[in-house]
Amino acid sequence: MKYPCCIFHSIASVTLSCLLIVSVASAVSYPKVDPESVFPEIKIYDKLGRPYRSAREDWEGARKRIEQDPLWAQWLNQERATVDAWMKRHRDRVTWIAGWSNNFVSPKDGSKLTWIEAIPGEEVDHFSSPSDPHVEITDKLMAAWVRTWREHHAEMMERAARLYRLTNEEKYAEWAADQLDFYANHYLEWEPQRQGARLFWQSLTEGVNLITYAQTVRLLGEYAGPSRRKIWHDDFFVPEVAVLNENFPKILNITCWLRGAAAQVALVFDDDAMWQEAINGPFGVRQQVSEGITSDYLWFEQSLGYNSYVVTALTSLFETAGLFGRADELALEMATVENLMLASTYLRFPTGQLPTPSDTKGQLFAPDREFIGSHYRVFPTTIGLADVQKERNWDTLLDPPSPLTNSQAELPEVTSRNFETSRMAVLKKGPWQVFFHYGQPPIKSHLQAEVLNYSAFYGDVDITHDPGTVGYGSPLHKYYYTQGLNHNVPLVNGEGQQQPPKGRKPDPFTETRAGELIDFSINPPTINAAHPVYRTDAAAERELRIEGESLIDVTQIEVQSSKPQKLGLALHVQGSVRLPDSFLPDPDFSNDRPPAFSYWKNVSTAEYENEASFDVDFKTITMRITFSVASSAGPSTFRVWHGSSPDMPPGRREAFYLETAGTSATFTTRFAPVGDIATTESDQ
């Protein structure tokens, strides 16, 4: 261990001082130099050197396109049919109480349920998911269904208003306006739920959908008249914005939505005071972009899904600002957010698969051509314009994408790179590519016990990855996916990195969670990071390096204890392990261990001394994984467990858990290819 013996004195003092913290840590500064010039390989610049533009709406041109192009006419007929069907069938109810979308999951495996518009209990008697065909309707699931229904209803209001603007058919305007009347008249009849939200379960969803309601008002124009618009403003939008402004006074992905929504309401109703508060006020849009986007142009909460989430929130604002001639006021923010949209492209594995730090749900890929293309109205890129050319939707009808001058959109090369302000790194040499998550931000949201975790590819073969998580309402999220055993990390008595207390209790790890980057080298490809406060009584360090055809991991763990502790290491693989006959079933694997251990299946175990090697068959190659263990307790005897662990649901994968006793231990893991599958099988 590279730490001096006195490390635990410093741990104790750091922990004590941090426990005195009673508020969120002061904001981290993330300098951004000339954001317009970053990632130039993908951007399209205008004559003034700007990679962004103001969105526009060409209604007269849209009508001509409908008249002159049969495909556009066909699209319009389909849009009419969809909106007409919804208008005829659906109407909101004050008795419908919206719940949390993350609760809309299977109780069996945490997989997302399939949402359909049929009304539960009236038109259908159960829910289902691809892996769970019959799920009982419960109050919690019904509320989650209502949340999605109400969001669809809001979207239909906006689409109806667009149809009115395009066709001048007043039936669409009157239906959309009638829905706004309903919400203004009945808004206070919904009891406040979480954070004062009424139409939805939480203020975040309230803000997201308030944007859609505001766009409906904008599109209706003068149809409703001043008195009707005033009722909407006074009885619905003003109290809604008040709810948004009362919540999340911090740098947070949610706050981007809340302030972005308030800013768009301000534009629609020409409320300059509301605009100034949303843009320039405390924790307004400018501060969110400045302090929430790192110098590497990743969202600081680390879940890559939140990159896209924040981009969507703020691009919605940028589009509306452009339509009102206010985009130039947000030039710096636009340049920065475009980089946030593109940055994950430089993290992608050879298959396009992205790593899943923090609580990402589902497998993400980069570049997400559909996502990047959907933002072309503000951020024209080679990737986005190539993807959106043949799209037919409201955006491309009203603001047609410019034709690409180049026929091929080239992707940037992924190289070894230290995303230092984001506490992540990529090592790449030859066929090996490794993503290392070596530190975390000084906030509690979206954390998992995953610091020092890594994912690795060998060419296009997925060797090991982080499966992310499932819906927050699933027990699997709380008891497994967020825990150390789900990650390739060191464990102390079965526990990974110590997590902060829930709720508003002080966070004793705010100042230490970033860890210490000891070394980063492109040649030779090496990275080494340490966490002196991995737990209140433990320090950990990990070095990853690529040597020729091998990937080597050296992980050290040290505890402050006079008695030997159970020191362990988890490793999950995306291949099939050739397990020796010496492994015997262990039905007691989860006994006297944290709850996460109960989620492994078919567990067997064997004891080793000094070293253990296993051949693992992957998609096209066989990899020999060799573990060696050195412990402070004396002879290097350790036990290896093998089992089936949860992967991205409903999938499972194979996994190892190593354990030895002592106050310190070093686990060395070597991955070395030994040939393709056919060759190695013939040698058996």
UniProtKB/TrEMBL annotation:
One of its GO terms (cellular component) is periplasmic space. It is found in: Periplasm. Residues 492-511 are annotated as: Disordered. Keywords: Lyase, Periplasm, Signal. The keyword Signal applies. Residues 1-27 form the signal peptide. One of its GO terms (molecular function) is lyase activity. SUPFAM superfamilies: Chondroitin AC/alginate lyase (SSF48230). Gene3D superfamilies: 2.70.98.70, Chondroitin AC/alginate lyase. Residues 416-577 form the Heparinase II/III-like C-terminal domain. It comes from the Bacteria. This is Heparinase II/III-like protein. The lineage of its organism: Bacteria, Pseudomonadati, Planctomycetota, Planctomycetia, Pirellulales.
